[in-house]
Amino acid sequence: MTVADLSKIELHLHHEGAAPPAFIRQLAHEKKMDLSGIFREDGSYDFRDFTHFLSVYEAASEVLTGPEEFRRLTLAILEESAANGVVYTESFLSPDFCGGGDMAAWKDYLAAIQEAAEEAETRFGITLRGIVTCVRHFGAETAKKAARCAADTAGDWIVGFGMGGNEGMYEQGDFAWSFDCAREAGLRLTTHAGEFGGPESVRDAVRTLGVERIGHGVRVIEDADLMHELVDRGTVLEVCPGSNVVLGVYPDFASHPIARLRDAGVAVTVSTDDPPFFHTTMRREYEMLNRAFGWDANDFAALNATALAAAFCDDVTRERVQ
Ligand code: ADE
Ligand code: ZN
Predict the structure, then answer these.
(1) What is the ipTM of this complex?
(2) Which residue among 8, 13, 67, 266 is least enclosed by CB atoms within 10 Å?
(3) Annotated catalytic residue, options 167, 195, 238, 285
(4) In terms of DSSP bridges, do strands 158-164 and 86-93 run parallel, antiparallel, or are they unpaired?
């Protein structure tokens, strides 16, 4: 048994971003859509930088045209995650890609995703909970539709609200209405910050939006005062080292700040973000962290305990997946 065989808790996974390229190619074939431009010759997704990644991601999502596609996708994702030892995962679900923000359509998509999640729980022993996400570069008005969808379906299964997308566009504060709407519906909050934006984007996220978790957040390593603030607040970082390396935030695992953040007392967790895009899995993330920093079974047990405590599910679920 190696550290990569341990059970894992994952908190940061984008549903569309977890679609294997073969799955997307198969759907494109069935629907007679030409998506050849987004794949390399070896079949992997082809992108050169972050903004290009976002456009390839959106192009791939175009084949996910209805609830049935999301049912199939959810099963495929959870089978793969379970095969990598993941026992609990939270994934970002975007009403923008599930019916375009229309409430009735969103509920149909969600029903299909939940049906697949129940099947996966029985077949593969993995539990899924959903975080509704808005997409930053689609703007604040579009985000409001996502927030309304989130608020209307908040409960035991939809447990959070978040924001992904291009950090270079708009300010966190432009989305305050959406985060307030979600909070009032009882949802827990996370937002992407400190991935391509500097430490100030993380400061803004915790102070302006009141989020308790940050997607990535790794660039707080550049600001010692802010690191202390995060420790005091108990803010948890959803760190995705393999994603950061492929997107060029850091050149390699050895220079990634996750170990320095952890050693400074910041609560860190590990996730894959968009695993097939970044040629990674939870198993590989564990292997690479073991290799780069010598993290052993005790380190990973502590990491998982942090993740489980920071999971947005209820305590009954938390105890069951432990
Ligand atoms: N959406 C999917 N992956 C993302 C990432 N790494 N950063 C921001 N938005 C995303
Ligand atoms: Zn992400």
Answers:
(1) 0.98
(2) 67
(3) 195
(4) unpaired
| CB-CB contact of 146 with 97 (8 Å) | no
Nearest ligand to the CA of 90 is 2
Degrees, nearest 5: CA angle 174-148-201: 25
CA–CA gap between residue 111 and residue 137 (Å, rounded): 27
Domain ranges of the chain: 3-19+73-314
CA torsion through residues 27, 29, 34, 38, sign = positive
Fold of 3-19+73-314: TIM Barrel (3.20.20)
Query: For residues 279, 285, 289 and 291, what is the CA-based torsion angle, rounded to 10 degrees?
Result: -60
The tokens describing 186, both together, are 């009882």
Mean pLDDT computed over 64-71? 98
The pLDDT of 288-298, averaged and rounded, is 98
- Average pLDDT, integer, range 262-271: 98
Does residue 322 surpass a pLDDT of 90?
Answer: no
Cα–Cα distance for residue pair 190/306, rounded to 1 Å: 16
Sign of CA dihedral 210, 213, 218, 220: positive
Q: In a 10 Å sphere around its CB, with 0-12 CB exposed, 13-18 middle and 19+ buried, how is residue 102 labelled?
A: middle
Q: Closest by alpha carbon to 255, among 265, 247, 245, 264?
A: 245
Q: Is the pLDDT of residue 270 over 90?
A: yes
Compute the distance from residue 145 Cα to the ligand 1 centre, in Å.
19
Please name which ligand lies nearest the alpha carbon of 169.
1
- Residue-level pLDDT at 1: 85
Ligand 1 atom closest to residue 164's alpha carbon, by position in its atom list = 9
